[in-house]
Design goal:
single chain; alpha/beta; Rossmann fold; eight-stranded mixed β-sheet; globular; binds S-adenosylmethionine
Length: 272
């Protein structure tokens, strides 16, 4: 999860009120004995968009984007009708949590046009960048959701509805007292498993050695996820893995990690 401390983003306010305010985001109480990322009290600040981005946003967000409804009275009823949103039926959907500026999202989508791609992000300027790429590139198979990925998965996607979930270079939360904020936890893995359809793929990548150790401890913790490891050559398409796993273009944060000579670790699981 993100704060101003180690992320490019601080969570953004709902679109209905773009003014800065302070608050605690909506958090489902799962009460299932598993660990879920715990968010503290957040400082919500306005993201700066250029005039051009604001215009592109106003024109295109209404049909290409959604905002998680955080109103506790109405938040329970917001499962997305994917066929309706993408305007086509019979296509598998992949959700990317924490798409940042969406460089790899926009690079991959044209190579997987048979898939619906939903990018989930809390950072409005990142979504605005991706929206710009989508509009300029005429990319038709990307939609975007602004909101906390855990709440979005829980509230906006039906159980067993996804062919893939991607988490690329999640915020590492390096301090021990912040580890509970890491998005990869027993509860998140369980939630992701529940949203994947049988055979669906979870793909996680990190350049952070300590986070990799954390994930290593969790690879077999969720009974519904079969851990597949990572192929020796990720560019060679594994026909048993039905979604694209080669990011095509390194993500912004992958690039930052590589500049520091970090080792990239990747993880694949398949929904049983
Ligand atoms: C380190 S960046 C990586 C961005 C991108 N995947 C990349 O590789 O360039 C992590 C991103 O996750 C987003 N993020 C953090 N917690 C999130 C959450 N709970 N739901 C959605 N996005 C989140 C942050 O805003 C940030 O853009």
């Amino acid at each position: 999860m993100s704060t101003t401390e180690n992320s490019p983003a601080s969570p953004q306010e709902p679109d209905s009120s773009r003014a800065a305010h302070r608050g605690r985001p909506l958090q489902t109480e799962f009460n299932d004995g598993r660990d879920y990322p715990r968010l503290g009290s957040f400082s919500f600040r306005r993201g700066t968009l250029t005039d051009n981005q604001e215009n592109t946003w106003d024109e295109n967000w209404p049909h290409l984007g959604r905002v998680l409804d955080e109103n506790s009275v109405t938040a329970d009823d917001q499962v997305i009708d994917l066929d309706d949103w993408f305007g086509r039926t019979g296509h598998d959907t992949i959700v990317e949590i924490g798409s940042g500026t969406g460089t790899s999202t926009a690079a991959m989508a044209p190579l997987e046009t048979d898939h619906n791609i939903v990018a989930v992000e809390i950072y409005r300027p990142g979504l605005a960048k991706l929206l710009g790429s989508v509009v300029r590139g005429g990319i038709t198979n990307i939609r975007m959701v602004k909101g906390d990925g855990v709440e979005v998965l829980q509230r906006m996607f039906a159980p067993g509805s996804l062919a893939g979930v991607r988490v690329y270079f999640p915020d590492p939360w390096p301090k021990a007292r912040h580890h509970k904020r890491r998005i990869i936890q027993t509860g998140t893995l369980h939630l992701i498993a529940s949203r994947l359809k049988p055979g669906g793929i979870l793909h996680v990548a990190t350049d952070h050695a300590d986070y990799a150790e954390w994930i290593d401890e969790l690879v077999n913790v969720e009974d519904d996820l079969e851990y597949l490891g990572w192929p020796d050559d990720p560019a060679v398409r594994d026909e048993t893995v039905p979604v694209l796993t080669d990011r095509q273009i390194i993500t912004k944060f992958e690039g930052k990690g590589l500049d520091k000579e970090h080792v990239i670790r990747e993880y694949l699981w398949r929904r049983r």
